[in-house]
Amino acid sequence: MAMSAGFKYTDTPSAHRKDWDNVRSLLPYMWEYKGRVLFALLSLVLAKIANVGVPVVLKDIVDQLSINMNSVLVLPVLLLMAYGALRVASSLFNELRDVLFARVRYRAMRRLTIRTMDHLHQLALRFHLERKTGAISRDLQRGASSLSSLLNYFTFSIIPTIIEFSLVAVYLLVSYDWVFTAIIFSSVLVYIGFTLAVMNWRIHHRQEMNKHESNANNIAMDSLINYETVKYFNNEKLEKQRTDQELEQWESKGVLAQTSMSLLNFGQGIIIALGVTVVMFFASSQVVAGKMSIGDLVLVNAFLLQLFIPLGMLGVIYRQIRYSLTDMDHLVTLLETPAEIVDRPNAKALQVSVGQICFDRVNFAYTSERPILKNLSFTIEAGKKLAIVGPSGAGKSTIARLLFRFYDVNSGAIRIDGTNISDVTQTSVRQNIGIVPQDTVLFNDSLMYNLRYANIDASEAQIHEAARLANIHDFIMQLPQGYDTMVGERGLKLSGGEKQRVAIARVILKNPKILIFDEATSALDSRSEQSILAALKNAAQNHTTLVIAHRLSTIVDADEILVLENGQVVEQGSHELLLSQQGSYAHMWQVQQSEPEALPPAD
What we know:
alpha/beta; ABC transporter transmembrane region fold; Rossmann fold; 3 domains; six-stranded mixed sheet; 10 strands; disordered C terminus
């Protein structure tokens, strides 16, 4: 099933409801340590009580000092000690909150990442062919980070600010004229409204800037990945121009983004200045009228400035929350993508005794507009070797994918030892089949790791023996680091022939009942091909073998050969029989026999 289109953030109510639905769906990941969560929240409340208490004690200190101004100065020692203790308590409880919540946050990220990775492995091959690898990597990385970011913002910014606002409001309403509460919170509301309005306008420029930066990086990286192609056609100038065009747009949007940020900072400064000025005006009037002390004036001013400190990051937090919600939606959408190939309820493991394969009137199409296999039927008897040949697009490799259950057939059945593979678990089907693919992709790890991947419990002696049978052991031993040699990303440090020998060694090491060779010698020269064919022949003894071939010389010993055209069998028989019929197979044989000997590939 194809992945749904990328999510586009909108500011509609339904979008916000969806965002919070997504957040709620991921909250169970943090509830594993609910005790820690509750203690972290308690620490948060205590930290804010201490934080609000600091200006209150400061007021009393100022009042005590003001009373003693005209007499012998006596230090309010207890108040000063209380002031210091509240400062320490605020810092202590903040750090305790961080320590308690760290395990919650990182465990939630870990569990979410593993769940996403597991889900991606459950999705069908169709999904991975249609979805860009970079996009999957981005969703996996950003999705887990978005959960962490949202937890951080809510726990360390939003919730603390709300608690502090509430404590300050209660204290002001109880202790002072309501006008101070009205002025302070009106200033805060104007500050928040202005910040969000400018940020909504600014985010558009920032998103455009990020888009052009990503495009420029993509063009630059693509040109470096395809370095040889760029050089072949002397298109360095073209690549430079394409990159510079995107960077020109990035530069323009970057200037607008910075200008809007300066406007935001300046506007916030004006609001703070006006709020403080109005508060100071009324507080000074109250002091002159004898209704407030100097300490009260200091307290009200301190409360106002203290509330504006966390709001200084409001714009950044708001932007990051929006981005995190968007990234989270991408992740939730990914997690909600249904697996196309699923095991039936109570499906049992496939038990393979002899390895007979039967395709029974199989029909299959990747899309309804283009059928690939049409009423295809054939049987590979246990221990026999069947080869399939035909032009590109005939459906040869599709047969191997269906046998592995990367796709399910549209109609008909595929049976192994009489059991329909749709009725058993996918894992058990793949356990009993080994493949040497046409394009062998290796992990960016050592040769030993890539060989052992076929059987993680295999001993070094078993791995060496499999490498010998695949005619690659001697080559490996000549390398400076031997089996510890790193193969590079996708195995790019090895030649095509060397990678195929690794693949052959892996299938020998796996030792399944059924073998599939999909153009298994396509990257080998004729001399190497013969040695590999001998190894494959030994490996295939007592195994049911399906060979998908282009070089007909590699399948002359097959027990039966199918000629496939347009998803249907047009000829069937042994090599000698098909040659005698003077049909499609005989024509392909004559063409290949008349071709000049290909030069061996460069290693």
